[in-house]
Amino acid sequence: MDRQKKLLVITKRLVILATLSLVVAAILFAVTIFIGLPLYMSWFAFECGIMGGFVSIQQRLKKIGDEELTLLSESWATILLIPVYGGVFSLVLFVLFLSGLLKGHLFPEFWVPDFGVPPTIDNIKEFLTKSYPASAADFAKFAFWSFVAGFSERFVPQVIKQVTSTNKEVPESSNLNSSPNQN
Q1: pLDDT in tens, the chain (183 residues)
Q2: φ, ψ for residue 111 (rounded to 5)?
């Protein structure tokens, strides 16, 4: 199969998988709205990260080598792996936001329920289901950074490396603020 046909196969698979992902997300969100359940930020983050991963693959297709192109064109799982990593990275980023380890005017702030002393299972359940962006602007920032976590496969690992190497908060003026588009 020539390069152009491989690109077409991969693009078709990306469209199918991205559409399936959006349909599943739409169903989950519709169920939460119609039943009156809260929108879980973890689901939202995961979906934004997945979509970032799909867009990242599509953006890189013309630049990748023939070996990787062949691998992607022969396997649905290989195409799906990058977006799933993007979803996982967006969940890790969500935890970094909730913990306060990553903050600054470019990043969202969250309302997080307090734990009792000692913490209970109900405190953890409330934390997982009732932690939300503090404002509409923070929600938009959260959506953006969740997408970036999936799009730029190096962003979250860079944040983790910086947090673990300094063993303290990422400074607000960190160079991470200026490089979200690295791929």
Answers
A1: 788 898 999 999 999 999 999 999 899 888 888 988 888 899 999 999 999 999 999 998 888 888 888 888 888 888 899 999 999 999 999 999 999 988 899 999 999 999 888 989 999 989 988 899 999 999 999 999 999 999 998 999 999 998 888 765 555 545 554 444 444
A2: -90, 125
pTM: 0.82
Measured distance CA(25)–CA(30) in Å, rounded: 8
Residue 102's beta-bridge partner residues? 170
Structure tokens at 4: 């152009």
DSSP sequence for 76-115? HHHHHHHHHHHHHHHHHHHHHHHHTSB-STTS--EE-PPP
Q: Could you give the CA distance from residue 99 to residue 94 in angstroms, rounded to a whole number?
A: 9
